[in-house]
Recover the amino acids of this structure.
């Protein structure tokens, strides 16, 4: 019975392992693209997938993965950040919902991580932000107010008009979801009232300032 080419190659490798290894090395150096394409196709087969799974679960495979992660940590983290950012942009509402649910169910754990983060950053990090005036910026004030409203009153924070004021301002809720910037002194003038009375007092100021009907 005639032998197939694969059987002839196997018999040759078994009888002459050194020559076979040298021949394989020369072939890989001469045709690297052809070898990569052949390996890619093989890994897509059931046999190739089973082999990869078997190798990855072995002690040698796990040690290889650990070495690769240690030697390419920066590159791996950079690629992971890009993938995460792209996923969050494509699934923004879903991610926000999951984050809120996770924080609600793990408040103590999240607060502990935040405290550890602040300690790790140290005073120098926040001192630099203070010197740059970050804690007096509109971005910082808006984020603080947004968190406070969500935490205490469970309100939304949808900005419907961008700030056009040249004086200190605060964001005022015209309803449970939408906010609009108003002068701080006028906003403080009606603080302490019932929320509905507060809205009615601020309403004519907003209509006159922005020319809109509420």
């Amino acid at each position: 019975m005639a032998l197939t080419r694969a059987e002839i190659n196997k018999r040759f490798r078994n009888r002459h392992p050194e020559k076979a290894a040298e021949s394989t090395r020369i072939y890989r150096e001469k045709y690297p693209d052809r070898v990569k394409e052949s390996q890619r196709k093989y890994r897509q087969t059931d046999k190739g997938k089973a082999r990869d799974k078997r190798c990855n679960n072995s002690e040698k495979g796990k040690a290889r993965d650990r070495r690769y992660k240690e030697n390419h940590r920066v590159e791996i983290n950079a690629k992971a950040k890009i993938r995460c950012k792209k996923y969050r942009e494509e699934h923004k509402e879903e991610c926000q919902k999951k984050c809120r649910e996770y924080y609600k169910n793990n408040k103590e754990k999240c607060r502990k991580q935040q405290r550890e983060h602040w300690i790790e950053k140290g005073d120098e990090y926040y001192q630099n932000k203070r010197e740059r005036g970050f804690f007096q910026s509109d971005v910082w004030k808006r984020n603080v107010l947004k968190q406070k409203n969500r935490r205490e009153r469970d309100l939304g924070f949808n900005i419907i008009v961008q700030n056009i004021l040249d004086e200190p301002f605060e964001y005022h809720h015209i309803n449970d979801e939408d906010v609009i910037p108003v002068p701080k002194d006028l906003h403080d003038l009606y603080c302490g009232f019932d929320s509905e009375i507060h809205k009615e007092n601020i309403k004519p100021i907003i209509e006159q300032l922005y020319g809109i009907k509420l």
In short: Strands lie at 158-159, 169-173, 178-183.
